[in-house]
Amino acid sequence: MDKLLITGGRPLQGAVRISGAKNAALPVMAATLLAPGVHRLRNVPRLRDTQTFARVLELLGAKVVFEDHLLTIDTQSVNSVEAPYELVKTMRASIYVLGPLLARFGRAKVSLPGGCAWGPRPVNLHLAGLQAMGAALDIEHGYIVASNVKLKGATVGFDVVSVGATVQLMMAAVLAQGQTVLENVALEPDVTALGEVLVACGARIEGLGTRRLTIQGVSALRPIDATIIPDRIEAATFAAAAAMTRGKIRLEGVVPGHFEAALRKLEESGCAVQRGADSVGVSGPARPRAVNVVTQPFPGFPTDMQAQMIAVCALAGGTSVIEDTIYFDRFTHVPELARMGARIELKGNVAVVKGVDRLYGAQVMATDLRASASLVIAALAAEGETLIDRIYHLDRGYEALEKKLGALGAQIQRVN
Ligand code: EPU
After folding, report:
1. What are the residues whose beta carbons fall under 8 Å from the beta carbon of 166, sequence distance 6 or more?
2. Which of 15, 98, 407, 415 is the most exposed place for a label (fewest CB within 10 A)?
3. How many angstroms is it from 163 CA to the middle of ligand 1?
4. Closest ligand 1 atom to the C-alpha of 188?
5. Catalytic residue flag (residue 116)
6. Residue from 49, 123, 156, 160 to probe ligand 1 pocket by mutation (most atoms less than 8 Å from CB)
7. How far is the CA of 57 from the centre of ligand 1 (A)?
8. Whose CA is nearest to atom 40 of ligand 1?
9. Residue of the nearest CA to atom 27 in ligand 1?
10. Is the CB of 200 within 6 Å of ligand 1?
11. How far away, in angstroms, is 92 Cα from ligand 1 center?
């Protein structure tokens, strides 16, 4: 199993090109099921998750070709409606095929994802929304099963802001009969980007970028030809790495507004940030200042940056308080960071981080994608060598991470 060996202490310097966003690519890949034909997706990151989703589409009968970052998906030949447990359990976003399958074929058999490393992560809002649109869903042997479904427009109000449920219902509604109104939707750039892709294919969606979407169903959509937006979490992770290593880096190919909350927090912690049209310069301070963070749905501070921010605060002068209001149990990085000398006390979903003067290299274990990212950036700032085990988690969501960090001057190596 691959590991990462990092020798810390070098400030990151130079420019890094940010890849396409995993969480924007996955829903657009699912949306290709809505229209039979050949779809072209550009700037798709080469990640384990995009490969897993490609596999799900192939099992449904699609022909998928990855050439560099161009993904061509032919969904004319889709002839199955079953997404098996073996794949859905490895990547929850596989459940995105449910809405499109019901919309196009009127039937589906999609595994329930089950639990997640950091908590239950239910899909009740996805299911309730589809049911409100007329889909009779049964749960049989761990699968969501439906047949003879004719989706009809409905008004669905989400009591929790959910990226996944918004995306799921948006995809179902674009081909449903009549008008759907979705209230309290997620505003994450990935959601809005999907809406824009669907509109470019002939969908009728009003209110993108607001909490209320009004969707008039159409009878058919054209195939997708779209470019995936840059990965704001990858960008913010590199910015956090600069903050921890007294680095000076330029993030290229980004939309600065997509990670403004993270940039503001890093400024508060002492970073100098220059926002360009499609680039951001970040210079880290001699030592970060302590900051308090509460994760929120977009445009608030993202839960996907909580772990990395804890790493930054681990080295800060003073005590930081970091609360995750989206996922209460998403703290598996805390005991691993403690192995590197971090002083973090967990009280429920609140981490109290007492900054230390230095972190030390250690053997640590990656436990999920963003937890792994926090260990990597902590290792870049730590004294000595850190060996990070189970980095397949990182490969799910960070494209060529060690190459990009190496080009910025980090001493980082993948070992087997
Ligand atoms: N929720 C429910 N019921 C549902 C769906 C969600 O109660 O049916 C709750 C969740 O338990 C959570 C909150 O709603 O407390 C928000 O969850 P959301 O549905 O927005 O999360 P998701 O769609 O499953 C996406 C990203 C995650 C990211 C979250 C929050 C993708 C593929 N995944 O997940 O990304 O953390 O939104 O922003 O887009 C990652 O990239 O590392 C990652 C985990």
Report:
1. 158, 182, 185, 186, 191, 213
2. 415
3. 6
4. 38
5. yes
6. 160
7. 22
8. 304
9. 304
10. no
11. 10
CA–CA separation, 1 and 400 (whole Å): 17
Peptide bond between residue 299 and the one before it cis (omega within 30 degrees of 0): yes
CB 185 within 8 A of CB 191: yes
In 10-147 the beta strands, taken as DSSP E runs, fall at 13-17, 38-42, 63-67, 70-74, 82-83, 108-111, 138-140, 143-146
**DSSP letter assigned to residue 297:** S
Distance 67 CA to ligand 1 centre (A): 29
| pTM, to two decimals | 0.98
Dihedral angle, C-alpha 73, 205, 92, 101, nearest 10 °: -60
Whether 93 lines ligand 1, by a CB cut-off of 6 Å, is yes
Q: Give the atom of ligand 1 at the shortest distance from the alpha carbon of 298.
A: 38
Kindly give the distance from the C-alpha atom of residue 304 to the centroid of ligand 1, in angstroms, as a whole number.
10
Decide: 92 and 116 in contact? Cβ < 8 Å: yes
pLDDT tens for each residue of the chain, 416 residues long: 899 999 999 999 999 999 999 999 999 999 999 999 999 999 999 999 999 999 999 999 999 999 999 999 999 999 999 999 999 999 999 999 999 999 999 999 999 997 777 677 899 999 999 999 999 999 999 999 999 999 999 999 999 999 999 999 999 999 999 999 999 999 999 999 999 999 999 999 999 999 999 999 999 999 999 999 999 999 999 999 999 999 999 999 999 999 999 999 999 999 999 999 999 999 999 999 999 999 999 999 999 999 999 999 999 999 999 999 999 999 999 999 999 999 999 999 999 999 999 999 999 999 999 999 999 999 999 999 999 999 999 999 999 999 999 999 999 999 98
Residue nearest to atom 29 of ligand 1 (CA): 163
Find the helix or strand (DSSP H, E) in which 375 lies. Answer: helix 369-381
Residues constituting the chain: 416
